[in-house]
Design brief:
The protein has 200 residues and is mainly α.
Length: 200
């Protein structure tokens, strides 16, 4: 076997190993970051803290993520994708086949459930202007607009972001932990809101 052939085989073997290492590092980073976001104020989580908790070097971390919010977005994306799949392919009322009022109420409940279980991630990824720049928010806008149009709501384009505003993670935190509202009371209020928004 020629030296070039040996080198080619060695390179081919090294590539899968590098990919496996990258996948393992990413999993370690995401798992460590999720623990940190849950244990402390998401705004105080630093890249140094994530690298140390994940047991990886700073260079390895920065190859995968530029900053802590991008890590939170990656974690939250997994949960967002599950809801997106249910909206498109799942059974009603969250999926197709139910009246707009029922689908909007089901959407509110699904998103509130996500906030209840993953609030630290949402606070780390979707606060302030960053909330409007995620791909998930764009998906939610399309879904809500479709429901508003189906319900005959006036000027749906001006209403979309108003409909989504109650799902801001800062608002959920304020209602739950500063105002002391139960999750169930918040859910009931948004169910009533969904019905009133689609009553026309």
């Amino acid at each position: 076997m020629s030296e070039e052939e040996q080198s080619g085989r060695s390179g081919a073997a090294a590539a899968p190993r590098r990919r496996a290492d990258a996948v393992r590092n990413r999993e370690q980073i995401l798992a460590a970051a999720e623990r940190l976001f849950a244990e402390r104020d998401p705004g105080t989580v630093t890249m140094d803290a994530v690298a140390k908790a994940a047991g990886v070097g700073r260079a390895t971390l920065y190859r995968s993520f530029p900053d802590p919010p991008s890590i939170a977005v990656a974690l939250l994306d997994e949960h967002d994708r599950r809801i997106q799949q249910q909206l498109v392919y799942g059974p009603p009322p969250l999926g197709p086949g139910a009246p707009p009022a029922e689908r909007l109420a089901a959407f509110y409940l699904a998103m509130l459930d996500l906030l209840r279980h993953h609030l630290p991630l949402a606070l780390g990824a979707e606060t302030g202007q960053a909330r409007f720049e995620t791909g998930a928010y764009g998906f939610w806008r399309v879904h809500v607009r479709t429901l508003l149009v189906d319900a005959g709501a006036p000027d749906p384009d001006a209403l979309i972001d108003v409909v989504l505003a109650p799902l801001a993670p800062e608002l959920y935190r304020f209602q739950r932990f500063e105002r002391g509202l139960t999750h169930e009371r918040i859910a009931d209020s948004l169910t009533r809101l969904a019905r009133s928004l689609t009553a026309g």
